[in-house]
Amino acid sequence: MEPILKLRNLKVVFPTNYGVIRAVESVDLDIGDRECVALVGESGCGKSVTSQSVMRLIESPPALTQVDAIEFNGRDIKDYTPKQMQELRGKEMSMIFQDAMTSLNPVMTVGNQIDEMYMRHQGDSKKEAREKTVKALELIGLPEPRTRANSFPHQLSGGMRQRVLLAMAFACMPKLIIADEPTTALDVTIQAQVLKTLRGMQRGCGTSLLLVTHDLSVVASIADTVYVMYSGKIVEKAPVKDLFNSPQHPYTVGLMAAVPRLTDKKKTFTQIPGTVPHPARKPSGCYFHPRCEYATDKCRKEMPPLMGQGGGREVRCYYPLTAGGNM
Amino acid sequence: MKYTYVIKRILYSLFVFAVVITLNFFIPRIGVDDPAERYYPPQGNMSEIEYEIIKQVTRQQYGFHVSTGQQYMNYLKGLFQGDLGTSFRPGSPAVIDLILERLPWTLVLSVSTMLIGVTIGILFGVLAAVKRGRWQDTMLLNASTIMVALPAFFIALILSFYLGFELEIFPAYTDSTMVSGFTWTWEGIRRVAQNAALPVLSMVVGSIISYAQGTRNAVIAVTNEDFVLTARAKGLKQSTIRYKHILRNSMLPIVTSLGMSISGLIGGQVVIEQVFNWNGMGTLFLEANNSNDYPLMMGIMLLLSGFTIFAILVTDLVYVLLDPRVTVGDKR
Amino acid sequence: MRTKQPMHKRFQRGLVKRIKNTGLFIKRLWSHKQGKVGLILVSFLILVAIFAPIIAPYNPYDVSERTTKGLAPSAKHLLGTTINTGQDIFSMLVYGTRVSLIVGVTSGVCIAFVGSVFGVMAGYLGGFVDTLIMRIVDIMLVIPTLPLVIVLTNVLGRDFWIIILIFVALGWTGLARTIRSLVLVLKNSNYVKAAELAGASRWHVMIRHILPGTSHLVIMSTALSSAGIMVAEAGLSFLGLGDPTAISWGKMLADAQSGGALLFGAWWWILAPGIGIFLAVFSFMRLGIVMEEIANPRMKQTSSVYKIFKSLDGSYIEDVFNSMDDDQKLGIPETARQGGKTHGTHLEA
User: Fold this and answer.
1) Strand, helix or coil at B280?
2) Please, what are the domains in chain B?
3) pLDDT in tens, B168-188
């Protein structure tokens, strides 16, 4: 599978008065053609910063970024000028944000906001753009698209707004879509609908998808490959089935144990002890060791590298867990 | 619905105006049983009987011989006919005539201050926001730190002293023939402009900086909003993002602050007119205060408040045009 | 709810806590560069106001010195004398501090009290009380303040305390409005809801839970409205409408103008009271703004980021970046990790 995106050695820091926030530490990411990759982690682990860095939306200041390569569709966009990036964004890669209420301009009609995409990237006139917008809204499953296009964001329901964001992201049939917590702000029932639409659109348009989320149920239902992030580092990478069948990093195990499931009757709902380290004051050695029940002296002193485990799996742990959960 | 909001807003302004009118009626009556005593306070060398006669005459002259309720009704009736009462001045001129005579001169100052202040202020504010953290921004911050602590009348005195008396660039006091000898010729307008230069300058510095600061904060607040990130992720041009998305949304708080600032501007102008002896409503008001000319004072108060109410109403309606979210709820 | 303790013990504990908090607050102000400037200036002004008779070399009310009229600044008369009456300007300046501070701070404190009481009542009780208070606020907003103050002093008299009363009566609206919107937020917060569910009375909730939540705003506004009132007082006395018996900076400016300071080039006569007003207003305003920054650190962040970037140490950041690589055997080197902290303090300086 020829990757559509090859991110190599991404590092992002935010200098502040209280020390340097180490948001992303040397992250590699590969997304194949038409593949859906999920980036999973708790809030503050750097997953949003990673995803925005892919589109080079992180500005300096406030951030400082270092990266070896952002290979997108065969070209390295790391050194693209702002103008070149503008051409690329929206057209070949686009983004869906978490909260559609704040992510849409409150004083513009949603139609106008989607029109902008066509007018900018396909050189359409206002009229042509509106025709395409109505079609896009229809495709995404918005009832009465022509009248809805003239509504302002506050006049739509949460699910409809999220669909508007989807229509906007898919407007120019980009190669890659980054969805940052696309369903978190929604009710569970609406979540499922929006997720279904997203998945359908992704398959239908032949787009690759980078899904950023903390919600493992979303991951299970849609992703092909999963990256687990902890405190700015990738700690585990695996195909989705393997990950759910046999998580190898203690953190991944903890994450899964924290999800209540109907099928498990005996297992109690467990929580990972401790808290995520402050991104400006990370512990020595493996960042997870203060919360890890298997930690040894080695873990306390040295950061384990990301080690290949075969079968496309990688894990950042000296003592990866086997299927049974024993060492 | 939008129309309901507009109508509600207009009705509410009328309600506020009604309350202001009532306050205006009652303020001179605070602390005295008989308004005649306020209008004509007892003098030391006056016998009891003499004063009683004078009060009797005053009551007749100003209509205080009827009940307070009746007086209030008469006051309202007069207002509807554009009658603000009669002044204490010799010849008993109508208050409205005195005011109308001074009104254009006051407007010369306030309108030019407002126009210059708003345009330059907003431009500066946008510049500072765009160049956030660079010298333009720092300069604005430092200027506003200093300016808020300097009263306009002190600036006026310094300007009058330096540019007026020392360098003699502009007249330090308003030329008394500016008003009496005014003609609609270039020469007449030029003289007004010359005389207005220092008063306007002393007010405009502060207003530029306060509008600039407000604009800067509004623009930066909008720049940090999520939808700006969306706009960037859409690959829109920098100029499109700036004008269509950021500036349009920053206008909302700026418009509100414009309405709010008018009352302060009017108050401040009273002092500035005094410094330069400008022939406007401010000096008229102070003259009225010094001679305890209550009808004139209250007439000016009413007019100023009415003007402020109107200005706030206008900015509110503009806000409705700009922001689709406003329906019935209170935006403040 | 907590078990009841003897009244005096609870009071004592509350007092100790309050004093401790105040100390902490002043300490934080002191550690802020601009806060330090504000604190020093304000304490300086307070000292000047208290010890005015000792500091002032002459009696500022003395208008009998006809031989020393219109002197320029000299060692004998630090800021010269007035042209028409021969009063010592430096002494007048020193005494002027008293009026400015007393009017400003008294009104500021009273405004904070009235404003927060009305704001909390409007926000928490809602309904009729809210409507009434907000209608009053709206009406006060449209009446130009200075003309209204002038009319009221005309009707009520120009005594010192009446002027303060008028300032308070007209000045509380802005704070009430701000507090009200904050209270509307607090009202929906979980701890207030919890207290309500536990059966606390409305007064108890208002005083024990809502009011403390607004304290930072109230303290800040005391400083800011004190500064605002000082400007207003100066304007009023400049118009000759302040307390006629007091020496105030505004009145000094008015005297300077009518006494021919402009005409005779006596710039010190204008500058001295102007600087007095500026210092007083500036220091109180600084304090208010710094308090706001301390209470609400996000306000400042945007601009400070640029300062940080200007003072960034390239090689240090390079170290941080290098420490992130996987082949670094030791993970984060001790220097870089600890450095985060020391570097931070270096940036703050």
Assistant:
1) coil
2) 98-292 (1.10.3720.10)
3) 888 878 877 777 777 888 888
